[in-house]
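step=encode ok
step=design start
structure_in=
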């Protein structure tokens, strides 16, 4: 096993959004320096990094120079091209490796990988050519969701399909791109598990988070999730299987559907820290971002215990700014509310601008206070 990368070293992150920003803040608190590589300027991560390189991901010379200047490369954005990861890996360890990235960049590859690990996924069929429109009937029943295989997130590139007659039109609508038809899962809740694995194979798993979505975008996360011990064990078994199956060094998130009988179906994997894990910054001994630093540097993983009986996190989308700007004074009139803003200039509707979190005695009160603070911020 390689030696740990100790504080003082330079950590490289590909991607410059809020996940990179919160990674950089955690790294700097631990005494590391941070370099960020991304095409954008004045990005959430570059504002807090020691060094920002602005270049396209396919500029392989720039990526090689970047990797030469850092001690390890990690990422916060999963759609980094394979060639970029390979070029970086010639000069510094890339954690996690490109293998996980490659699988999670394509829903068909991801489903195949999960199935080969023996993990439960919804019945699904590839839609790649015209013939698949007919054969999908053999495996999937309606209603279903048609999703483009590549570059889909937060419900983008998805159409609900209620009958096979409507499948071709939905596929047409998605540009006849490689897609997967997924049977609709009649879930009672959505949960996620964020986990970390170090170079020595040590694993640390956060408790399952309960996630509420609005318009296919994560809206509110609440802990503890209302699930029994058997479901927690099952969720952890699944997350561990993915971490070990892909030989991950770093952090990932497994999003799952909870069924009425307590069973779980894997929806998708994020090969990085996750929006639902933002709750860990305030609610857990070690945040998901510090855990990413520790994992990719080969330091011992931190404790994942919750520091309060319950907590909630509410996302702040650009919509909060819609009616005359955000009212931070009103949002913070509850002194227990913790505000996190990502330094983005343009508050467009649907854009993730920040989040706020609250610790409380029980999950329902925590959730109610987080939602109330967000309403106050929006002037409602
Ligand atoms: P995804 O981009 O795959 O994470 O999907 C975004 C959201 O769409 C999920 O969080 C679910 O709320 C919903 N969704 C996606 N796939 C399914 C499915 N097979 N059955 C029911 N709801 C789904």
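sequence_out=
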């Amino acid at each position: 096993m390689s030696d740990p990368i100790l504080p003082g070293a330079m950590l490289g992150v590909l991607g410059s959004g809020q996940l990179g920003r919160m990674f950089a803040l955690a790294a700097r608190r631990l005494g590391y320096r941070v370099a960020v590589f991304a095409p954008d300027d004045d990005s959430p991560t570059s504002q807090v990094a020691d060094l920002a390189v602005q270049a396209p991901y396919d500029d392989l010379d720039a990526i090689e120079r970047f990797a030469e200047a850092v001690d390890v490369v990690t990422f916060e954005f999963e759609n980094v091209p394979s060639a970029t990861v390979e070029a970086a890996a010639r000069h510094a360890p890339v954690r996690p490796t490109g293998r996980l990235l490659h699988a999670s960049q394509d829903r068909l590859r991801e489903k195949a990988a999960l199935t080969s690990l023996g993990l439960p996924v919804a019945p699904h069929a590839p839609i790649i050519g015209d013939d698949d429109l007919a054969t999908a009937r053999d495996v999937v029943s309606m209603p279903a969701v048609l999703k483009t295989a590549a570059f889909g997130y937060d419900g983008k590139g998805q159409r609900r399909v209620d009958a096979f007659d409507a499948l071709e039109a939905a596929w047409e609508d998605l540009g006849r791109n490689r897609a997967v038809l997924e049977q609709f899962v009649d879930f009672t809740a959505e949960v996620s598990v964020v986990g970390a694995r170090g170079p020595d194979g040590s694993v640390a798993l956060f408790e399952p988070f309960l996630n509420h979505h609005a318009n296919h975008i994560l809206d509110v996360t609440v802990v503890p999730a209302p699930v029994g011990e058997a479901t927690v064990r099952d969720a952890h078994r699944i997350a561990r299987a993915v971490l070990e199956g892909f030989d991950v060094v770093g952090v990932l998130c497994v999003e799952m559907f909870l069924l009425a009988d307590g069973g779980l179906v894997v929806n998708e994997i994020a090969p990085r820290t996750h929006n639902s894990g933002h709750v860990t910054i305030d609610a857990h001994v070690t945040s998901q971002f510090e855990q990413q630093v520790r994992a990719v540097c080969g330091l011992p993983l931190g404790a994942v215990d919750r520091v309060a009986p319950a907590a909630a996190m509410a996302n702040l989308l650009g919509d909060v700014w819609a009616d005359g700007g955000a009212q931070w004074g009103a949002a913070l009139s509850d002194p227990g509310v913790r505000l996190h803003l990502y330094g983005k200039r343009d508050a467009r509707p649907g854009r993730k601008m920040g989040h706020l979190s609250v610790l409380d005695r029980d999950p329902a009160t925590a959730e109610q206070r987080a939602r109330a603070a967000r309403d106050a911020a929006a002037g409602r």
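step=design ok
step=annotate ok -> The mean pLDDT is 96.
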